[in-house]
Amino acid sequence: MRLFRDYLKLALISGIVVALDQWTKYFVRLNLAPGERWVPWEWLAPYARIIHSSNTGAAFGIFKDGALFFTVLAVLVSLAIIFYYPRVPRSQTALRIALALQLGGALGNLADRLIQGGQVTDYLSVGRFPVFNIADASIFLGVVILILSSFIQERRNRIEAEAESHSGIEQSTG
Hints:
mainly alpha; 3-stranded antiparallel β-sheet
């Protein structure tokens, strides 16, 4: 039963990411020609816009023409997350959320690659940043959460170790 609940949480978070990602990509493909842009208010154009773009590389347009490599990588990463997720202690909520976001992003872009002949639909354009999509943002956010939670945990462990060493010194001198 515990394993079922673990996977249910993973499926829920990653499923929401995939559904939102695929719905927005479909909406963009349906309403904008490749290269076409949409801005609800012209004053917003320098800062944020929707641009229908395709990408055969990785997140944010890097490593163009790597569709096969990134298809295989997405499958392997997804399988690794699915295998590893129930082994993560429930107390490590941030790590579990990070993995679920990364899985959702990987599956969202994988679905695009399989459906769109190796291409991923990108559409979010913010400032001068490369065009991206919800799956890319989810992967990025998962990595940020993973790094921050690791940093916080490392700091917590160091503080606890210092506290234990100080209490050991006080006991031996008392």
